[in-house]
Amino acid sequence: MSPATGSVVALRRYPVKSMLGEDVEAAAVTEQGVEGDRVAALLDVATGTVASAKHPRLWRDLLGFAARWDDGTTLIRLPGGRTVRADHADDAVSRALGREVRLLTTRPEQATVVRPDPEAVMDAGVDADVPYIHLQIGQGTPGRNFVDYAAIHLVTTATLAQARAEMVRYRPNLVVDLPGATPYAENGWTGRELTVGPVVLRILGPTPRCAVPTLAHGNLPRRTDAVRTLLRDNHVGGYPCLGAYAEVVRPGGVTVGDRVVC
User: Which of 37, 56, 153, 262 lies 20 to 30 Å from 65, alpha-carbon distance?
Assistant: First the structure.
């Protein structure tokens, strides 16, 4: 099969787990992922778990915060518009959330998040106390940042067009345009290598979706079809999926517009 050729159309990072992120034109990509991505997270003091909007009843308000990474410094914009440095943010973020949290910059060993089934959340509502599991994060990366699984999450424009929901809901690092690619083509890429500019990625598997895409993101309202569409059209291994996880085989710098060979 001849390789498909396309380009990078979006490059994103999310400096604080479950907060809104930022578009960048260029970034270094290391074995840990996009520089500045998921470099911090909030620890729920009451439970010892990592705060994640996967558990909407407790943490959906995190998607009203935004974080940016400024040459090694993480800045957090609170829902009211005030910006604070992450290393001085514990009190302000705790007050805004109504729950005591502590910001971490190194993932603890066997760190977990709470993950209810997205269908249960959609059926019962975001305030419902539905069953959940504890999910260990970062198992597909050598780093100590707060990625869910692997260093990179990518998706094609064809898949996003088929899902018909805003890209920011799915929180990818890379959006690639591959002319001729079919929707959900990423499902069949496991084990395949992608060249993105000078960077080489190896696909680990499709990305399972939680309840996060269905939640309000900043000014975007709640939208359950962001996952219901996947439950109908792209159920893989028992999960609604969109995009793919990848590990970094060869680090380098990535710029929007870089050539992608798949």
Answer: 153
Q: Cα–Cα distance between 85 and 66 in angstroms, integer? A: 12
Residue 175 has pLDDT above 90, yes or no: yes
Q: Distance between CA atoms of 217 and 169, rounded to whole angstroms? A: 7
**130 neighbors 75 (Cβ within 8 angstroms):** no
Q: How distant, in Å, are the alpha carbons of 34, 41, 150, 153, 210 from that of 144?
A: 13, 11, 11, 16, 22
Q: Of the candidates 33, 104, 19, 23, which has an alpha carbon nearest to the alpha carbon of residue 66? A: 19
What CA–CA distance (Å, rounded) separates 29 from 13?
11
CATH fold label, 5-261? M1 Pyruvate Kinase; Domain 3 (2.40.33)
Q: What is the distance between the alpha carbons of residues 54 and 87, in angstroms, rounded to a whole number?
A: 24
Q: Decide if 177 contacts 194 (C-beta within 8 A).
A: no
Q: Supply 262's token pair.
A: 């798949």
d(CA 40, CA 184): 30
Record the tokens describing residue 88, joined without a space.
Answer: 């001085």
**Which is more confident, 24 or 237?**
24
pTM greater than 0.85 (yes/no): yes
Query: What residue spans define the domains of the chain?
Result: 5-261
Q: What is the pLDDT of residues 109-136, one digit of tens each?
A: 999 999 999 999 999 999 999 999 999 9
Work out whether strand 235-236 and strand 239-250 pair parallel, antiparallel, or are unpaired. antiparallel
Residue 153: φ, ψ to 5°: -120, 125
Cβ atoms within 10 Å, residue 95:
11
Query: DSSP letter at 99?
Result: S
